[in-house]
Amino acid sequence: MPKTIKLFHILGLVLFFGTVPVHILLGQIALSYFENGDTSLAATYRMILVQVIQMLTLPGLALLWLSGLFSVFRSKGRILRQKWILMKLALVFLVSVNGVVILTSLAKELAFHYGMAAATGEIAEEITALTTQEDLFGTLNLLMILAICALACYKPGRIGKTATIKHPEQKVEQITAT
To answer: Does the keyword Membrane belong to this entry (predicted)?
Structure first.
């Protein structure tokens, strides 16, 4: 991976992965204020969470996809011969769909319902169900993200493989791939 593309990939990682704990924290703060009756402050935190998703999480995910796809094209697809990369890409796809389609929608719906509760004083029954769904899909995304990190660090299938050097004049006969 060229250094510039690697830089964009790392920036995408920081933006995307870095917002995961922020998402959890803002959601819990909003829920705490909501449970204590301060629906206005709860709604504010929920709106901040939606802004974080739109301004940091989604652009980070886009950077990850663009830099990753560029690396695949640059390698002329050779990188896809590695099983760990295919596993990683499958998980990245699932994380992306879960994050963009499900979790982003849930965050927007919750922000809407929190805002309505703050404006009208009426608590929507959907908030509890939506919060449970967000917790479930958020936990699933976190577990998949951790699996992606483990795949990227350990690269299963590459560990312990050896490559024989084809030039006998070289002193080292085998190199262990790491």
So the answer is: yes
| Tokens representing residue 23 in the block | 């998402």
Q: In which element (H, E) is residue 167 found?
A: none
What are the pLDDT digits (tens) for 81-116? 999 999 999 999 999 999 999 999 999 999 999 999
pLDDT per residue as tens digits for the range 118-165: 999 998 889 999 999 999 999 999 999 999 999 999 998 765 554 445
DSSP states of 41-109 as a string? HHHHHHHHHHHHIIIIIHHHHHHHHHHHHHHHHHTTTGGGGSHHHHHHHHHHHHHHHIIIIIIHHHHHH
Residues in the chain, how many? Answer: 178
Residue type, 117: A
User: Domain residue spans in the chain?
Assistant: 3-176
φ, ψ of residue 93 in degrees (nearest 5): -60, -45
pTM of the model: 0.83
As a whole number of angstroms, the distance between CA 126 and CA 105 comes to 14
* Cα–Cα dist 151/88, whole Å: 6
Fill in the amino acid letter for 29. Answer: I
Question: For residue 131, how far is the Cα from the chain centroid?
Answer: 19
- CA 96-132-25 angle, 5° bins: 70
